[in-house]
Amino acid sequence: MPGTAPVSSVQMDNTETQGLAADDGDGEANMSIASHIFGTVGGVSGFGDFDSPATVPSDGLLADIEGMRSHSRLSRQEISELRHRLLSNAVPSPSNLPLDFSQLNMNDLHGGNEKREQSEQRRDSLELPGPAIPHWMHNRPYGSLDFIASDRNPEDVGPLGDVAVSSQEQQLLEDVLSVMTGIEGTYITLSKQPPNPDLGLYRTFVVDSSVEKSVQALVQKVLPVCSQYAQLVRFIEDHSEHHKGLVNHALAAALTTLLKDYLLLVLQLESQLRSGVLTLHRLWFYVEKTAPVMDLLASITAEITKTGARGGAVLSLLQARVESLTGCGKLQELAVYLATAAAQPYLDCLAAWISRGHIKDPYAEFMVQSNEQCTDNEDNVDEAADQDDSDDNKEGNVDTYWQWRYTLEPSNTPSFLTSYADLILRTGKYLNVIKQSASGGRAGASSAPLQLRYSPDPEHYSASIETAYAAASKTLLHHLIDDQHLLSRIRSLKQYFLLAQGDFISQLLSMCESELSKPLDDVLPHRLEFLLELALRTSNGAGYQDSIHTVLLPYTLLDQMMRILSIETTEEQEHRQALSRLDLTGIEGFSLSCSVPWPASLVLDTRTLFCYRMLFRHLFYCKHVERQLCKVWLSNQACKGLPMSTRRSYTAAFLLRHRMLAFMQNIEYYMMFEVIERHWHQFLADMNKVESVDELLQHQSHFLDKCMKDGLLTTPDLLRTLTKIIGICASFASFILRSQKIQEGAELSPTGEDDLEAQKANPAYEETVPSASESFEQTIARYDIQFNGMLVTLMDKVADLGRQDYTDAIINILYRLDFNKYYSSRDDALTNLGECSMQAAPVDDHEQDGNGAAGSSVQG
Where is the Gamma tubulin complex component C-terminal domain (predicted)? Predict the structure, then answer.
């Protein structure tokens, strides 16, 4: 029939097979769908009515025509006319056509070709993974099993309503079977209106309006199945492209298997049509059972197409559909079948990750993503790091590399694996640590390949994942402890950072004290590094001396802790803005750093080393103040040669120095023995029973957290009060040591001009120097009031903290500082003095500069 669109070779092969499988018959009942289409395309009487263009006949074809003269019943004249008609209707061969002929009317031949081209351009711009689809695949619409839009003129076909109802039904049966296989019928055609997005972009059809209403109603019942078939075919073709991913490929393959049964049903219906026993009622009887299945499959594919889901997102969608079909019997089994088939490539990738630490994910579908560019970024950051913070940057870069080398992609995490996501990530990471370490001989992988299969129950995966995790964690633990000597490294940190090595800290203070008394900007880092190395070599250390280095930080311990504790609070921005106003001495900014090699840095990471560093700064400064008070005691010995009447004027200073020294020694004893040693022994006991890396990390974190908490570093009020008391003690010692004479020009402690200039650079210098109207006795009395008041305030806050969160170690401070009830007997008076001292302490102005900067997070 003129103007009818041709049919794809795939469709013709399919319908020919259906025709061959049908029973033999006579008349129209013996015609298959393929023969009907062939009759529509070329079933005209004679070639004179063939209006579509033809190519030039080949020489072989003309020879065959010549050979027909001796075998055909046609006369010589009829064969000559046939040859003349073929040559007269021919057009130039494709090799002689214009260059753009291959694209001529392609959009008219296939309604979705333009959409395919746009999708291809979008794919090229996004650089999607996988090989590109050849252009000729999109320029050949007849390679699709979906409907092909034709330029058929409806006026070429007369109204079907003009014939009898039985004939209408017979013709519509043929059209329905054609439409059920993606072939447009004669009286059932594609709708020219665009698809409705609310209906899932399903194709719609138009039935000849002249058909009898009852017959048309039966046809309308079957047409949704045809739309759903078209949706499935379109999904299979679109999602079989490489960049759609392995999950979509597996799902498309499973749908193809199901469509074979659907096409077998159509074949059986055609067989009945040829036998003359098929009616529309019988057709609907058979199709009605298939309709829910087709609706389920089409709705799943439509949702995946609408959301653009890939990988784990597709599995989450299928899992939700399986759960929603609980109690639906066969439909749920069908959904489980699809989920099982689609999940297998994903679960194979999961098995490779948790058993070998390997990611085989060519289309970026897996829940764990590998970011290989982190190595290059690490080198760039190291080059840009400042000299003072080089060790911090290196530690931070290792943590950043380990944190971002393998990351979770939430959108690719199936809903049935969400609860195991962190466990899965760590399992593969641990295996990669073992492979990347020097002694990578520990395979860490399962001896037998791990096999995972889909199950709607999330608990089904628990045993496999936890077993793989336990094996990887245990292997890494033995590697860290046996090969990397992790416990020895932790003991060395305790020796140097927690001042367990007494001779080391004494020599370090003796060698570096003169250099650290200078302003921070005047301290020479290379000189400090040399003095540190000398102190390490001359002390009986625990090894790993080469990994210890000095660092000068532009903030005090109080600033550092307040910056951490006030993160994401209203005080953070205020502390950050005030940070630039700090003016410190070297002793206030001095700290140690430690370089830890990989993979020991997995346990001794930046956060862990920061905790060790903060504990060291607190203990180191307390030791420094204690040494200063001991120097005051030495200077006081010069007064022994003075007359008794003269020495009495210094009694108050001697008593205050004694109370301050007792306070500093009690605080150090509390920190060293009642906090650090107590928790250290518990930490060692836990380490002897550890069975996984997670337990090791947990015990390490617990040890440092308890030391920080019981050491009063994590409570802002207590830390601020303790810092002020230590500042008062340091200010008092500085005042006494700077005093040039006691009674009749006697020097308590002569200091050089260089030291005097360094002391003047301290922001607290002006506060510690008595004014012209203030005598020596009045200055000592002021220090006494401030010290007693702040000490009582500290004990009150410790007591309040003990009532809120009782801790034996913290309560022991009260018994040590007030063992003879001296302060508690004067509680009321000293409490009032303490409230005044909070405003009048000599370090207040300095703390306004330093503490005001507290709040921003510490940068590694």
Answer: 486-823
Please report the sign of the dihedral spanned by the C-alpha atoms of residue 40, residue 45, residue 46, residue 49. Answer: negative
Q: At 838, list the tokens.
A: 């909070």
The Cα 554–Cα 585 span in angstroms is 9
Q: Quick one: pLDDT at residue 73?
A: 56
User: Parallel, antiparallel, or unpaired for β 188-190 and 205-207?
Assistant: antiparallel
Dist CA 556 CA 620 (whole Å): 12
* Residue 461 in this model has a pLDDT that exceeds 60: yes
The whole-model pTM stands at 0.69
Distance, C-alpha 841 to centroid of its chain:
49
User: Residue 338 contacts by C-beta under 8 Å, 6 or more apart in sequence?
Assistant: 251, 254, 255, 297, 300, 318
- What is the spatial distance between Cα 833 and Cα 781, in angstroms, rounded to a whole number? 12
3-state SS string for 379-445: HHHHHHCCCCCHHHHHHHHHHHHHHHHEEECHHHCCHHHHHHHHHHHHHHHHHHHHHHCCCCCCCCC
Peptide bond into 599 cis (omega under 30): yes
Confidence of residue 608 (pLDDT cuts 50, 70, 90): very high
- Mean pLDDT, range 497-512, rounded to an integer: 90
Three-class SS string for 548-613?
EEEEECCCCHHHHHHHHHCCCCCCHHHHHHHHHHCCCEHHHHEEEEECCCCCHHHCCCHHHHHHHH
* 684-701 tens-digit pLDDT: 999 999 988 889 999 999
Is residue 422 pLDDT above 80, yes or no?
yes
- For 547-597, what is each residue's pLDDT tens digit? 999 999 988 888 888 777 765 555 545 555 455 546 788 999 999 999 988
Question: Which neighbouring-strand residues pair with 592?
Answer: 550
**Radius of gyration of the chain from its Cα atoms, rounded to whole angstroms:** 44
- Short-list 724, 734, 709, CA closest to 809: 709
Count, residues in the chain: 860
207, β-bridge pairs = 188
What SS3 class is residue 205? strand
* Residue 198: Cβ within 10 Å count: 6
How confident is the model at residue 383, as a pLDDT?
A: 37
Tokens of 129: 């993974």
